Amino acid sequence: MPKKEKKILLVDDNPVAQKMTANVFSNDGYEVLLAWDQKECLKMAKAHQPDAILMDVIFPDGDGREFVKELKLHPETKEIPIVFATNTLDMKDDKGDLIITIDEVSYRAFAKPLHYPKLLSTVRKEINRIKNKRHT
Structure pTM? Predict the structure, then answer.
């Protein structure tokens, strides 16, 4: 039986950053879904139920930290792991262990420009963490 390709939803309003990140994940074997804003993210996440969401923090239509609360309200999206990628964090402090806490839940975060090897590893771990949680 062939291995199922993992899906990631990339949510970023910067087309250059989105394309670079999409290429990295695509080259690593992911099916890449793209959204430009929160409204499109919610629609795509509900329809395609990706294995993970990589999301910017600042959007023209709102704050990603507040938007996570919206994603957690819907049965189709509440279990999808979310990793943040943002300009709001200082790159010199980014050692691959940054956390954004929202409603007492910790989410991994990366400063832009992204360190792709660490990001890929973190996304894999987050996907596996949720899958293992579902099977226990």
Answer: 0.90
> What is the DSSP track for 44-107?
HHHHH--SEEEE-SEETTEEHHHHHHHHTTSTTTTTS-EEEEESSS-GGG-SS-EEEEETTEEE
- Phi, psi (deg, nearest 5) at residue 59: -130, 160
Q: Pairing between strand 31-35 and 62-63?
A: unpaired
Q: Is 111 helix (H, G, I), strand (E, B) or coil?
A: strand
Q: Are 71 and 94 in contact (CB under 8 A)?
A: no
What one-character-per-residue DSSP string does 20-42 give?
HHHHHHHHTT-EEEEESSHHHHH
Residues of the chain with pLDDT under 50: 1-2
